[in-house]
Amino acid sequence: MMGLISALISTMGFSLQNIFSKKVLKDTGIHHLRLLHLLGKLSLFIFLPFWLYMDSMNVFRHTAIKNLDYRVIALLFADGVLNWLQNIIAFSVLSLVTPLTYAVASASKRIFVIAVSLLILGNPVTWVNCLGMTLAIFGVLCYNRAKQISKAREQPPLPLTHSNHIKYSPLPNDAYYRGAVNGKLSNGLHKPTMTTTATMTNSLLANGSGMPNGSATRLLFV
Asked: Where is the signal peptide (predicted)?
């Protein structure tokens, strides 16, 4: 029972760390590696006295440390380097996704770690351990499925029809823009022939007479 309570407290603290770390990244805009550096220094100042009181003497009195067993020292150094790399990757992923997505990814990582440790170290496995790992895998799959459904609902539906209606504005109420109706202009005059039209056009372009404001740029050729 003490182990179960400790595990639940550890999980709660891990979740709170992710939530507040994401909030700090979002509110302050600080770089995620800079935040990791600050948290590392704070953790050192907080836990160093506890480590000196509880574990330091046991570590220094160990025979592997007294005899300078380079294999054990190398394993400790490799463990520290891998833990440092794991934290860098964790904060890099946390800066890109939500805390919930990161928690699910962390659960997947723990499943992988447990499976590899069972294969390498040969730890005994009970049916309760198998049930717990199966439940964790099923939870990860359900979360991924729920996220896919949520994204599908957020996307707008594709349009079934697409209308390209073009609105045409009527021409200005100007005699030079009125079309021909039944061979006559809308002002009642007869439609001029091609020769007459060319003569009128050349004359209008030459001196701009008869056009508003004396401009020939409003001629419309149809």
From this structure: none
